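Running this now, will post back.
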Amino acid sequence: MANLVENIIELLKNQLSKELIVFIISLMPILELRGGLIASALLKIPYLRAAIICIVGNILPIPFILVFLNKVFDLMEKWKPTRKIVTFFRNRAIKNKSKIDKYGLLGLILFVGIPLPGTGAWTGALVSSVFNMDIKKSSIAILLGIILAFIIMSIISYGIIGRIL
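Update: finished.
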């Protein structure tokens, strides 16, 4: 992940502010807050500013995913070229649902918050949306997961990476 973050920083550093780069990285699926905090540490953005940018960037797309994803998927399924994309994402949600079902909303919090490959707010929102989980409860669980991810990644990014730099 760090290499991808470094490449994005290199690509954008002459066009955008450091803060906007971090915000964009935090918005992106896969990278999300985790990548944003790594970028913040690499760009030497003060911790509290980085916290706000990364959390806002990571949470911003989640309500749209929760509200509109199933509608978008239904439209995409009607068009043959995009049907495989929908199948891929729905299968990914099915694969991860058991992790969340086992512990309920706590499972969703942990799924979003523990920084492992294939987890995060985007995937948590995908699972929540595909299985029609309660939007309000899912939103709160995903936000709490993002905060958990922030705490864990702060220790890694500003602790470990900060000491190396």
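Residues 2-59+149-164 form one domain. More later if anyone needs it.
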